[in-house]
Predict the structure of Asp23/Gls24 family envelope stress response protein.
Amino acid sequence: MNEHDTPDARILGLEPEDLDGHTIEELSDYLEAGCRPPDPAIDESPGCRIALEALERLRRLSPELLAADAEAEPEPDDSWVQRILSGIALDAHAGRRIPITVPVANADLGITEGAVRGLIRATENALPGVLIGKSRFDGDVTVPGEPVRIQLDVSVPYGEPIPGLVDRLRHEIDVRLRDHTTLHITAVDITVHDVRRLPDPAEEDR
């Protein structure tokens, strides 16, 4: 996969019904066009927005990572990219409805499982170079107050102390989930599957 490739819908496991009738190819083309002209059918679809935001972050970073791999290895292993894409596919699925408990009489509020995964993936913005793959919830998220453990697969940039980076990622996730959900999170387990070298800007300028 290179910076001009469109992720294969079969690899992502996405079908049009997952994205309100759109395909991943259409979303990729929409990004390439700068989301112009605006398409309300895409812009107003929660599944499409989650997938678009994740694909945009991956598109910004993956050319640099793949370029670095190309210098180090004859044939870059893009399996890490497929793991990220499979996580994006999972985000696009609404999944279970997670109740939001508030002290308001007769209030019935909730957020989808896919939206919570989108919140988790959005922490990539706070930690440049980090890419989140799959996120899994261990526990019944549909029952208020039920203990829930989150498990994440991530790819991190070379040169950053991994323990500190993981702690920062865990903190960002904790803050976002506390702000936007009432899930009872007991732990966030993070597994680093890949360490990727980013190009040195000083070397690129030579």
